[in-house]
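Hi Prof. W.,

I finally got the DUF3717 domain-containing protein prediction working! I wasn't sure whether to trim anything, so I left the full sequence exactly as given:
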Amino acid sequence: MTRLAIEKIERAINIWRARFPAPEGPNECPTLCPEARALADVYAVMIVERKLEIAVSMLTAVQLAALQGALNLPNS
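And this is what came out:
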């Protein structure tokens, strides 16, 4: 896999959010787990730049690990 569609990143973020939901309550601050946060960074840039896909080589090691952990992708 050399290119990654924005939908896969969104799916991975949602998987991490389901695994580790944000705290709820009147005094709680909604937060993302570290894996979802790492992917949210690249996802936001893609939206701003109107990109539908990105080269996998552009991901950081943390982002790639989060993606692989969510989608059970083989290690590159």
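The mean pLDDT is 92. Does that look reasonable to you?

Thanks,
D.
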